[in-house]
Amino acid sequence: xxxxxxxxxxxxxxxxxxxxxxxxxxxxxxxxxxxxxxxxxxxxxxxxxxxxxxxxxxxxxxxxxxxxxxxxxxxxxxxxxxxxxxxxxxxxxxxxxxxxxxxxxxxxxxxxxxxxxxxxxxxxxxxxxxxxxxxxxxxxxxxxxxxxxxxxxxxxxxxxxxxxxxxxxxxxxxxxxxxxxxxxxxxxxxxxxxxxxxxxxxxxxxxxxxxxxxxxxxxxxxxxxxxxxxxxxxxxxxxxxxxxxxxxxxxxxxxxxxxxxxxxxxxxxxxxxxxxxxxxxxxxxxxxxxxxxxxxxxxxxxxxxxxxxxxxxxxxxxxxxxxxxxxxxxxxxxxxxxxxxxxxxxxxxxxxxxxxxxxxxxxxxxxxxxxxxxxxxxxxxxxxxxxxxxxxxxxxxxxxxxxxxxxxxxxxxxxxxxxxxxxxxxxxxxxxxxxxxxxxxxxxxxxxxxxxxxxxxx
Length: 458
Hints:
Layout: H1 4-20, H2 22-30, E1 47-57, H3 62-69, E2 74-82, E3 87-95, H4 101-108, E4 114-125, H5 132-135, H6 157-162, E5 167-177, E6 215-217, H7 236-246, E7 260-267, E8 274-275, H8 276-293, E9 297-302, E10 304-305, H9 311-322, E11 326-330, E12 353-359, E13 378-381, E14 385-389, E15 393-397, H10 400-417, H11 423-432, E16 435-436, E17 448-449, H12 452-456
Parallel strand pairs: 5-7, 5-9, 6-7, 9-11, 11-12, 12-13
Antiparallel strand pairs: 1-3, 1-4, 2-3, 4-8, 4-10, 14-15, 16-17
Helix pairs in contact: 7-10, 8-9, 10-11
């Protein structure tokens, strides 16, 4: 069980999350006249110019929605999500030339059928730029304190392997990121091949995506989840993340927390980063796969962040949580306190979110890592992390991007030995088994770092 002090912190974290979204909630409480666009709405480095996301009241008719949009000059609108709860429909609205995001958002908030209007925020990857790398001492993030090579601050994954716990192909993880090189020799056996939709030009399973044989590229709107250096997008970051979660143990290259797991690519980060709209599509795509086909999809890895609070993205993450899918998120690389400066999506006040800070091989909190006694859950190895990269390569990266897949891997490892465990049970096992760490005391809710073996053996 989680200690009483941790439960209290969880309650405070929930309250913090409510405060983080206070600008949107207060606007609803005070009425349309108090509405205002969030800071950064018209900054092209933070939000897509000329695009806003609009959530409509569940009772709003199609005509009422069109009338509301008629109050601002638009060129088109596209439904991207049908929600549950407060809102029924989220639409991506493209504004006419000369109409600013902030002006459109201010005007739309005044419409009674509009639950919220917000920017289409831009996200970026949270990283800086007897397998070989395991044996030569490079893969410290996988090490345990009792085995050789050893590192007490490693994830302790090696200890689980020594006990015969190496994962299962029956456990699925979604990688919401850049694409994954599914042909990489350290990933090819663990990359998902869709049995429900072949390469025949038809949407055989009716999910709206034709020939999504390896997942989907929401940035490029096609089924090519791996571009391999084409169009300036190598898909290095997504492939690196995937390798930490589930690179094969095959005597070469690197190895992941799981030797056996099934990785599904939901690519939404392209050459210019990613957007809120495409992040929502990626989350909902994976949620639908689980609901539609009964996949044992236990978590998504989210090594990215940026922009501000988004009600529509929060709702999508909540929909995933309703299907028992954990959302493991990077805490961010700005070296700031997320308790006072929230980082999204890791700061959303949802039960299925786990926020991850990065530690170095000495156990110190990485200098770049965000932290937060209330808003960040635990630390994991995130500095000098070797993993798979595109074009059959291997690279060392640092960032909370690299810490996050260690935790996602531990979640999948736990699920492999605890069939039927709920998202809440898995999250509790991960957090309750965190090893107390001096550098994380007062910096994370658990005050500790990941112990994949201890979590898996609970």
